[in-house]
Amino acid sequence: MTRAAAHHVLIVGGGFGGLAVAQGLKGAGARITIVDQRNHHLFQPLLYQVGTATLATSEIAWPIRQLFRRRKDITTLLGVVVGIDAAGRRVLLEDGGELGYDSLVLATGARHAYFGHDEWEPHAPGLKTLEDATAIRRRILLAFEHAERESDDTSRSAWLTFVIVGGGATGVELAGAIAELAHVTLPDEFRHIDTRRARIVLIEAGERILPGFTADLSAYAHAALERLGVEIHLGAPVSECTGQGVVYGGRPLAAKVILWAAGVRASPAAAWLAAPADGAGRIKVAEDLTAPGSPDIFVIGDTATIGAWHGKPVPGIAPAAKQQGAHVAVTIRRRLAGDRSMRPFRYHHDGSLATIGRRAAVIDFGRITFRGYVAWWIWGLAHIYFLIGVRNRLAVALSWLWIYLTGTRSACLITQGEQRPAPRMSSGS
Ligand SMILES: Cc1cc2nc3c(=O)[nH]c(=O)nc-3n(C[C@H](O)[C@H](O)[C@H](O)COP(=O)(O)OP(=O)(O)OC[C@H]3O[C@@H](n4cnc5c(N)ncnc54)[C@H](O)[C@@H]3O)c2cc1C
Question: 393: Cβ below 6 Å to ligand 1?
Fold first, then answer.
């Protein structure tokens, strides 16, 4: 088949799902285009480590174009998709351009959501992109800088209060990492404040943290976080977020750094297709992961919902997106071979993992669970294994080993935006 005549697979989104489709189509004889609004694939599970000054951005992200430099069947494009003309088999781009397709895969992920309070976002940023992570790192490090120069006790304590909203894996991981930053890494570096007195407050609306894990693992994580000095407030929904702090469970708390780790909303793919979606905007896909009524449009990963986990909804995690991507690649290959029969997607859950600081983690493999130090090693090895490329695996392993042994972090850099705290103390104090 000539290149021009080859079946054109257009993949929107170079995240976990999109990359799995491209990898699964290797040698299939299709012409593949990947379009993404960013030039890099991002390993989101370690994003909180960039936000808390543990890892550098280049250790957890890779240019998509570079990943596929040897795949001549793949063209990588930078572009923002804003709509789909399904009848005309065209995808519409923000800059007015358009891309045709024979098969379309929507793997555009999700973003954090504020339960109808989008006005909270500037005060309580979430973690989804590299920009989010470096902005959060800046906020955290700047808060210590402000506190160092603050003469008023009340203001200083607000600068040294870090609130994390949401007790899922991301909230737990952020809280543990900020606690270690304040209590282990920074104390020797400041002269006017004791960073060990910083308050790290984790607020969860539900009855326990890590609700996706077993009750005993969740209790273990709760106790481990408290040992690190994290205050945990359960059953306390946040009802207000401002530049001065939060109100949770009816109580006000002054805090200059609020981080959002509660709730996600799917990309607007459902609106592009006018397709039925769940409350979080995820398209309710058919059994073979196609959009309802559109057999040549597949929707996968965080932007889709399907009850393919023994009847339960498939979780919004990386392995699920990868499995769906692999399934779509097999379906397209079979169709190219002339077989259009429907094969339902089935999800296999390998386990749930969350880390608590640099010495403990919880792992739920279903029949077997791990906690503590052993779990932390399994968590670390698993994450290193899933990183792309030998250089990144070595770099991350070395960074972790260094922090583990010395407690010091090399990525405590305040970049972008305003860097200096307003002068409040007299020079000489
Ligand atoms: C902070 C954080 C921690 C996480 N931790 C874990 C974890 O420990 N373990 C785990 O398994 N999962 C974890 N997840 C979830 C996991 O990262 C997601 O489930 C997974 O990334 C979903 O893959 P995806 O392909 O659907 O979307 P993504 O990987 O998010 O990829 C979507 C891609 O689409 C692109 N895109 C979006 N909109 C457009 C557009 N309009 N035009 C062009 N391109 C677009 C984006 O730039 C992105 O590259 C975490 C997520 C976050 C945010």
Answer: no
Tell me if 323 sits within 8 A of 346, measured CB to CB: no
Separation of 67 CA from ligand 1 center, angstroms? 17
Question: How far is residue 225 from each of residues 199, 305, 358, measured CA to CA in Å?
Answer: 13, 32, 11
Q: What is the pLDDT along the chain (429 residues), one digit of tens a residue?
A: 454 579 999 999 999 999 999 999 999 999 999 999 999 999 999 999 999 999 999 889 999 999 999 999 999 999 999 999 999 999 999 999 999 999 999 999 999 999 999 999 999 999 999 999 999 999 999 999 999 999 999 999 999 999 999 999 999 999 999 999 999 999 999 999 999 999 999 999 999 999 999 999 999 999 999 999 999 999 999 999 999 999 999 999 999 999 999 989 999 999 999 999 999 999 999 999 999 999 999 999 999 999 999 999 999 999 999 999 999 999 999 999 999 999 999 999 999 999 999 889 999 998 899 999 999 999 999 999 888 878 888 888 888 888 878 877 878 889 877 656 655 544 333
Q: Candidates 11, 33, 42, 44: which one to mutate for ligand 1, based on the most atoms within 8 Å of Cβ?
A: 44
Ligand 1 contact, 302 CB (< 6 A): yes
CA torsion 308-381-110-119 (nearest 10°) is 130
Ligand 1 atom at minimal distance to the Cα of residue 268: 41
Distance 1 CA to ligand 1 centre (A): 34
Read off the tokens for 142.
């700047």
- With a 6 Å cutoff on the Cβ, whether 77 touches ligand 1 is no
CB of 262 closer than 8 Å to CB of 71: no
Catalytic center residues = 173
Q: State if residue 12 touches ligand 1 by the CB under 6 angstroms criterion.
A: yes
Taking alpha carbons only, the member of 188, 250, 199, 212 closest to residue 352 is 212
Distances from the Cα of 307 to the Cαs of 278, 284, 314, 346, 423, in angstroms?
A: 12, 9, 6, 9, 56
Q: Which residue has the least CA distance to atom 37 on ligand 1? A: 108
Angle at which helices 372-386 and 390-406 pack, to 10 degrees?
Answer: 150
- Contact present, 246 and 205 (Cβ < 8 Å): no
